[in-house]
Amino acid sequence: MTKAEIAAVFEEIADLLDLKGENPFRVRAYRNAARIVDGLAEDLDRVIAENRLTAIKGIGEDLASKIIELHTTGRLKFHEELRASMPAGLLEMLRVPGFGPKRAKVVYEKLGVDSLEKLEAACRAGRVAALPGFGEKSQQNILKGIELARQFSSRHHLHKARAVADPIVEALRAHPGVIRCSVAGSLRRCRETIGDVDFLVSAKPADAAAIIEEFTRQPGILTVTARGETKASVVLRGGLQADLRVVRDDQFAFALNYFTGSKEHNIAMRARALRLKNWSLNEYGFSPAEEKEKSAKELGSIVPCRTEEEIYRALGLDYIPPELREDMGELAAAEAGQLPRLVELKDLRGTFHNHTRWSDGLESIEAMAQAALDLGLEYIGIADHSASERQANGLDAKRVRQQAEEVRRLNEKFAREDFRIFFGTECDILADGALDFDDETLALFDYVVASVHQGFSQDAAKMTKRICRALEHPLVTMLGHPTGRLLLEREPYAVDLEAVIETAAKHHKIIELNAHPYRLDLDWRWWKRARDKGVRCAINPDAHSIPDLQFLALGVGIARKGWLTKRDVVNCLSAREVEQLFHGIRTRKAR
C-alpha cells in the first residue's frame, strides 16, 4: 500500500472507532497518524527497512506495526475486524457532507438507521428532526447532503486519478509493442474532478492483443469488466473506471484529439471541418462528408496528421492546449491567433500559502523553506493560521512576534542560498468581515492572506459583504480559497463572485488559486473574468507538509484552464518584485 492508501485506512479506523464511542484520544491518534503518514517526505520503504517508524513523533509501536502490515500485505486484520463489527452502511452515511461519526452514532442508536437509504427515509418521515440536537433545519441539510453524496459518488479527485493512472501509462510506454501512449479525457484536460480515465495507445495491429493483456494485469487494476481485440475496460484502485484503446499510429493524433474532448469542443471542431472543408472528422481522421460506404477507419485520413497540431492547422487554427478544450471561446481565439501563452510549472518562482508546526502543519519553517529550495523555488511564504482557528493551533499576537523573529533569523541563513522567506499569515475573516488580528499585528507581516473558515451558512448578501469588507482593508494582500469549497465533500458557500472580483480589482488585491486538490479554488471558470478585470492570481498549495508543495503542479493545470499566463500569476515574479508588489498593495489607493 502507498502512504496515501495507508492514511485512508487510518482515517476510516478513526471513523469506525468514533462510531463505536471509543476513547477520543485513541480516535485522534489514528487521525494524526493518517496525516503523518500521508505527509511523510521520505520513502516509506526506506523508513521501514531502517526501522525508523517509531522515531517519528506520533507513531508508537502499535501504529508502526499496523503501518508495516498494511504496507507489506495491503490488508490490516484490525481494520477488517473493526469493519465487520459495524453495519456497512454506517460508513456510507459518513459521505454525507456535515454528517460526522457523532451524528451517525446518534441516529443509529436512537432510530436504528444504518444506511443512506434508511437515513433518507427517517429524514422524510421527520424522525431525525425530533432527535435532541438536530431539528428541522439540520434534517433538511442532511437531505441536501444525501443528494450531494450521491452526485459525488462517481467522481474522483484529480490527484488521485493521476496517482493511479501515471504508473499504468509508464508501464504501457515500456511495452515493446507500444509506439505512442497518452491519457486522454477529462484527466488530460485537467478537470477538477474525474469521472473515468481514458488510456490511448498506438501500435501495430499484431501487437494489440499483447498490449491489452499487459494492461489488464497492471497492479492498480482491481477488476476487468470488458476485453476485446483493441479495447479493454477495468476498475482501478479506488473505484475509478478506465478504458484502454489501441489504434494504428496513423490514427493516434485523431483518436487522442477525439477522446480528450470535451464533447462540446469536439462538436465545434466537427462543425468547423464540415463548414469550411466539407469534411467529416472523427477519431480515425478526416474523410469527405459525402462518403457513405467507406470511412477514414478503413481508408485512412484524406489529410494525414501525425500530431494534434497538424489537425488544428488543417482547420486553420492554432494548436489549442488540452486544458482549454471546453468550447468556451478557444476556437475563435485560435482562429484569430489570440490564444494566450499559458503559464507553465517552470515559470513559478515561489509560493505564499504554506503552514508549519507553528499552527497545523507537520514541518518546521526551516524544513519547508529547504524543501522549496530543493524544488528550485526562489522563495516561500509562511502563512500560519490566526488566533480564532483554535483547532488549528492558530497564533496569537505574542506568538506572531516570536515567529517573526524565527523568520528573520532563518532569512539570514538562507540569504547565502539567495533564498527568501516571506512572513505572512492566513488571517480569518470574521463573521462581520473584520479581521482576526488588529492592525498593529497585521502590520508585522509581509503579506496577509484573508480567508473564511467559519460561518459558511451565511446568505449570499452577508457573505459577499463580509469578504468585500476584508478585501477593502489596506493590510490585506490576497483572498484565500474564495468559495470555501471542498471538492466532493462540501459545496461552495453562497457568494456573489462578480462583486468579490470587482472589489479585488478596485483595491488591487490578489485572489488565490488554492492548489490543494480538495479545493482548486477559485474555480477555473472564473479566472478569465478576473484576469480581464485586472485581478492577479497567486497559485498556492495550502501546504501542511513537504509533499503538499507538489500541489503547485495541480494549481498550474487549473490556471491554464483559466487562460492564465505568466504575467497573470504573481508567483512568477522574482522575490524583489514580490516585495515591491506587496508594498504597493498596502500603499495604493482604490481605483
Draw up the topology in text.
Blueprint: H1 3-19, H2 24-38, H3 44-49, H4 61-73, H5 77-84, H6 88-93, H7 101-111, H8 116-124, H9 136-152, E1 156-157, H10 158-174, E2 178-183, H11 185-188, E3 193-194, E4 196-203, H12 208-216, E5 221-227, E6 231-236, E7 240-247, H13 252-260, H14 263-277, E8 279-282, E9 285-288, H15 296-299, H16 308-314, H17 330-335, E10 350-351, H18 365-374, E11 379-385, H19 397-414, E12 420-428, H20 439-442, E13 447-451, H21 460-472, E14 478-479, H22 497-506, E15 510-514, H23 527-532, E16 537-540, H24 552-561, H25 575-587
Parallel strand pairs: 4-7, 10-11, 11-12, 12-13, 13-14, 14-15, 15-16
Antiparallel strand pairs: 1-3, 2-4, 5-6, 6-7, 8-9
Helix pairs in contact: 1-2, 1-7, 8-9, 21-22
- Largest sheet: spatial strand order: 10-11-12-13-14-15-16
- Report the helical percentage: 40-55%
- The shape is globular
Mean pLDDT: 94
Cα gyration radius (Å): 26 Å
Characteristics of this structure?
25 helices; 7-stranded parallel sheet; 16 strands; globular; 591 residues; alpha/beta; Beta Polymerase, domain 3; 5-stranded mixed sheet; Beta Polymerase, domain 2; 4 domains; DNA polymerase, domain 1
Question: What does this 3D model show about the protein?
Answer:
By secondary structure, the protein is an alpha/beta fold. The protein folds into four domains: 1-86, DNA polymerase, domain 1 (Orthogonal Bundle), CATH 1.10.150; 156-247, Beta Polymerase, domain 2; 262-335, Beta Polymerase, domain 3, CATH 3.30.210; 347-587, TIM Barrel (Alpha-Beta Barrel). It has 25 helices and 16 strands. The chain has a seven-stranded parallel sheet. A five-stranded mixed sheet has the order 2-4-7-6-5, sandwiched between helices. Strand 11 (379-385), helix 19 and strand 12 form a beta-alpha-beta unit. Helix 8 runs antiparallel to helix 9 and helix 21 runs parallel beside helix 22 (497-506). It is globular, with a radius of gyration of 26 Å. It starts with a helix and ends with a helix.
